[in-house]
UniProtKB/TrEMBL annotation:
The keyword Chaperone does not apply. Residues 2-74 form the HPr kinase/phosphorylase C-terminal domain. GO terms for molecular function: kinase activity. This is HPr kinase/phosphorylase. Keywords: Kinase, Transferase. InterPro entries: Hpr_kin/Pase_C (IPR011104). The keyword Zinc does not apply.
Length: 155
């Protein structure tokens, strides 16, 4: 299935970035690339189910491309794919409220579910927040409360 969004990966673990036009998807991808993340897809993402996982890659004509507003459309960038998706980040319009301690949320596609977090994509802390969220989604970090609450730390 084809989605309007972007996708990046860190250590082969993919994050699908969804949000309305102008919410900062490509800008967030650009900042993540500068921090060592890999480009998977920008603007359009192909998602498929295989072996109980969701896989993401760029459509062939867009592979290695990234829109940088105010500069243009870059091409022939190094890219990965397909990658296993571990997390979905839903970007909120600037000014939209974001709960301090959000309840766990999920994204459903092709009969499978992924954890989902909400972010303001244009904020300076967005790349770091996404890094922490991916670590939690992959089990490399624990949370006492919030989007990946396990409950045992509060007992």
């Amino acid at each position: 299935m084809s989605l309007h969004g972007s996708c990046v990966a860190l250590d082969e673990q993919g994050v699908l970035i969804l949000g309305p036009s102008g919410s900062g998807k490509s800008d967030l991808v650009l900042r993540l690339l500068g921090r060592g993340w890999d480009l998977v897809a920008d603007d359009q993402v192909e998602v498929a189910a295989a072996d109980g996982a969701l896989l993401a890659e760029a459509p062939a004509p867009l592979r290695g491309m990234l829109e940088i507003r105010g500069l243009g459309l870059m091409q022939d960038l190094p890219s990965k794919g397909p990658v296993r998706l571990r997390l979905v980040a839903r970007l909120l319009p600037e000014g939209a409220p974001m709960p301090r301690l959000p309840a766990p949320a999920s994204y459903e596609a092709l009969g499978l579910s992924l954890p989902m977090v909400a972010l303001h994509g244009l904020r300076a802390s967005a790349p770091d927040r996404l890094g922490f969220a991916l670590a939690a989604a992959c089990g490399r970090a624990r949370m006492a409360a919030g989007a990946f609450e396990t409950g045992d730390a509060l007992a």
